[in-house]
Amino acid sequence: MSSFTSPLIVSPLDDGRRWRLWREFTYHIGTEYSKDFVHVATGFVTDFASVPSFLWWWLPSWGRYGKAAVLHDHIYQTHCKTRKEADDIFLEAMLVSGTKRWKAKIMFWGVRLFGFLAWKKGH
Fold first, then answer.
1. Do the beta carbons of residue 90 and residue 68 sit within 8 Å?
2. Is pLDDT larger for residue 61 or for residue 29?
3. What is the rounded average pLDDT of the residues 54-68?
4. What is the pTM of this model?
């Protein structure tokens, strides 16, 4: 099973919507010691899951999937993987983080259907 290498440590920015990463982490894709990985550096800025605010009562921007959302944001900003790979990694990372399968699938399909907008902007 895949793995993250360290806990997520962030602090909020003054805008109240974005967060800065205070500790880097690496996510190993596919298996725990995979040579295929994504590294997110200290200082990276995220908004976690880009869920429309009217849905936050049901699907907040932060949850067990928080680290997966940071990873996904990083890949979308850097284009270090393809968009399809980014979305697949997001799904895998959510499941690794203990997100319920139904919720992970909803979030996955959200980014597959609407993520092209953020991908083009690099967000």
1. yes
2. 29
3. 84
4. 0.91
Per-residue CA distances from 81 to 58, 62, 64, 71, 111 (Å): 30, 23, 23, 11, 15
How many residues are there in the chain? 123
Measure the CA–CA gap between 80 and 90, rounded to whole angstroms.
14
Longest dimension (CA), the chain: 39
Alpha-carbon distance of 98 to 33, in angstroms, equals 19
* Residue 5: predicted pLDDT: 80
> Is the Cα torsion angle 44, 80, 121, 56 positive or negative in sign?
negative
State the residue for tokens 């360290």: 6
Neighbour-count burial of 107, counting CB atoms closer than 10 A to its CB (0-12 exposed, 13-18 middle, 19+ buried): buried
Q: Tens digit of pLDDT for each residue in 28-38?
A: 999 888 999 99
Please name the residue that has the structure tokens 């109240």.
16
